[in-house]
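Problem 3 from the worked examples.
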Amino acid sequence: MQPPANLAIVREEEIDWILYHIITATDTIALPELCLRAGVSEEIALASAERLERGMLIARNGDSLRALSVQESLLLCQLRHAGNSPITVENGVIKVRDTGRETKKP
């Protein structure tokens, strides 16, 4: 997919769409490579990646970006909106939520 000729007048959603399709065409892609392929600055690509991550469409690990599977997106959505869930996901790692309870040792 070719980026629009004049990105100055393109809405954020259109940039997100372009970058998302570039990300989904690879297993993982580094942010500088994404910028090169899309023809956008690192600032624009980073802002878009943050929106895509908040939308539970991609995962970031440092400069590396990858598309989430449908199952991963659904799980993250359920965990985000289930405030009483005993588990959480941090940087792709499933963890037991810290409830502030201390365990007593015998």
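Problem 4, a separate protein:
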Amino acid sequence: MLKFFQATVAAILLLHAAPALAAGWLIFDIAGDAQLTRGREVTPLSASKHLLTEIAAGDSIATKGNGKVTLVSTATNDAFEIGANAVVAVGEKELKASKGTFTQQKGYALPKKKPMAMAGLVMRGDPHRECLKITRGTATATHTLTPTLQWQNTCDGNPVRLSLFSGEGLVLEQEVNGGELTVPQGLLGYGQRYVWLLETRRRDQLAAAAFRTLPEETAATVAGLLGKPCCRRDDLAGHLSDLFFLRDQGLTELADEKQAVLAREYPEIDINTALGR
């Protein structure tokens, strides 16, 4: 079930074996407020920027509020979720919590023995290189269980391999031509978080992103809101209220689209100022 994820992580391990940083872990998911401390440098973590980032022995990760971070060990191939309000020190093969807890994630866990076919898998380049860039379905919430995931692939023009994961394991694996895929019905559930990976055919470029689905009741409210006509000149306050609601629910992509429409319809209004941003 996790065959592609096993190959993907094996490839990442080879990519990150450079002597500049002896990485012991890779970030596989980030949700909420979290930060990485490396020496004296503190870096806020986000799912839009730091998936597949190397984490080395001596680093520490702290979460605040409901923040969570999932790490995959390059030594054991197991995955662990650092829970809310936690401070975790990273070792070469183990984690140690001075505050809060971390738990093993079976859905992301990998077998300790890799298939022989993986031995010849070689990664070239940078997994964050711009030739493979995710443009939709990243660091956002969605009100639909059939979201459209989009990306730009200027690496080689060939199809990409897309794999979608929940905390329970692989949900979808598919080779895709073009730059988008609408998730089929029946695969996603309400109130869940998902991570998806793209891999070029030559397996020399990777991209990763995460999104979450809203609870069912909230999703229904959003669907009703999106059905409202836009944009009556006498109802700017109502549309600003709707826009604030979308942002408050973490629907970043929908909110950005609605704000762009409002900016065109009300050019005399600074929408960010009107929202108090």
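Solution to problem 4. DSSP finds five helices and 16 strands in the chain. Residues 126-213 form a domain with the Immunoglobulin-like fold (CATH 2.60.40.10).
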